[in-house]
Amino acid sequence: MSKFTVKELLGLIKLLRIDVFFLLANILVSLPSIAFNQLVQDKICTNKFSVNETVCLNLEKSEPGYDFIRNQVLKETTSLKLYLNILTTLPSIFISVILGHWLDTYPGHLRYLLASSVFSIICQNVFTIYQCFHFQLDSYSLIYTYLVPVLTGSGTIIQLGTYTYATRKTPAKYRALRFTVLEICLFASLPISSIFGGRILESKPWFPNQLRNYIGVYIVSSICGLIAAVWAIVMIYDSAESVNENVKSDEPGSDEVKNEKKKSLAQVVCDLINPNNYLDAARCIFKRKPNNAHWFLFSSIIAGYVSSMAYVGEQAISYQFAQRVYHFNAEKIGYYGSFPILFLAIGALLGPPLFIHWLKFHDSTVSAISYASMMFNFMIKGIVYDPIVYFLTIIGIFAGVSLVLDRVILSRMIEPTEIGRVYAVTGIIGGLVPTVSSLFYTKIFQATIDSNPGLVYLCSGLLFGYPVINSIILSIARNKWDLELIKKRKQTPTDKEMDKS
């Protein structure tokens, strides 16, 4: 186990500036999720089916005579969210290609990209508030509110920019801990958003003539966004500096900074749209590596795609599932839904120190354990039709570790100069994930909502089988692809003594 000096620990604390932004940005995005689902349902219920407002406000607990309308509203909501996923994810493929090369070549632009992405989501909130004041507008008109963040690639910029910054600024021995902190920020934002989003929504409306307090949720979300944008501009000033393995994190990458200053705006634009840059990004994945390590990289990216498809797609039906099976309102969904996220956060926090530093397991071995836990969580939700399932997920507490180790494992397979481009390629593949997974979840849920709504969770649980197998293979063959292990084998005794010191 590596020993950390006081200077190194101070340097690690200094890195947390991106984590604060990541937490606030995720609250900005996640806080309105419950309010948006309920806004869509209320619009469909009152505008399309012309049901009394009192019934629509408690549709999940309506009398059996309203079961058909309730299920139709849930199906319509699921379909609209599918269209939104298609709209928001397909453009991210093109944006990921540009952004990967952009962040590698012009890292100093990062804080402005992050701030602009946040402002675009705030614009989305403003347009949604307009929809709340004009409630009679068709529910499908809510799709237009997503145009600004879609065209600016805000979600892609926040994710890819954050993890590229963290990878560039963090030595290899810190990365498991570094990505754990980021995932903790992500996990922390979800229960905060779920609990407070539900409570604000169910509170007394802040504006007259509103069925629920949708506008209050979007106002609070926008305030978090403004804080995140200011934080990014003021604090993320060192993105052009990269760190070496000796943790001299304050030494700037002088060549990178000079190149940025020399190029004009026209040269930057021409460089970003150069097709050779995109071919180069693909070569980072497919170029032959020693010990055929490129196949391990390719297989791991596919495994990440499959696991993301099973995990991310749940958002398309989770709200409707809780209403259909447990008859929960927005506040209860926010409250109970926070427990599984809390368990995942605890597991993500305790897992790396427990398995990697104490038990000395390799990252890939821990990844296999984590994916198996994730499989259990989904399977049990498809079998047990009782709210107690929210607490049973504690058995799969280490499921969240996989979200950390996916990036750690990839970072140990690639050279530092390839980070942005490889993450861009994974972003391209990831851009397809929400569309495919939403289609997967939506079609199964709509087909089984009346008879067996939990079948969708059983099917998604089985998808984790491939990531489990891939992680086991990586663990067995880790000496062939892990650049850190390969580097240690090649070190001379003098080099090893220098590392220990």
Automatic annotation (TrEMBL):
InterPro entries: MFS_trans_sf. Keywords: Membrane, Transmembrane, Transmembrane helix. The keyword Transmembrane applies. The chain crosses the membrane at residues 20-40, 82-103, 110-130, 142-165, 177-196, 216-237, 295-313, 333-356, 390-410, 422-442, 454-477. The keyword Nucleotide-binding does not apply. It comes from the Eukaryota. GO terms for cellular component: membrane. It is found in: Membrane. It is a multi-pass membrane protein. One of its GO terms (molecular function) is transmembrane transporter activity. This is Major facilitator superfamily (MFS) profile domain-containing protein. It comes from Tetranychus urticae (Two-spotted spider mite). The gene is 107363987.
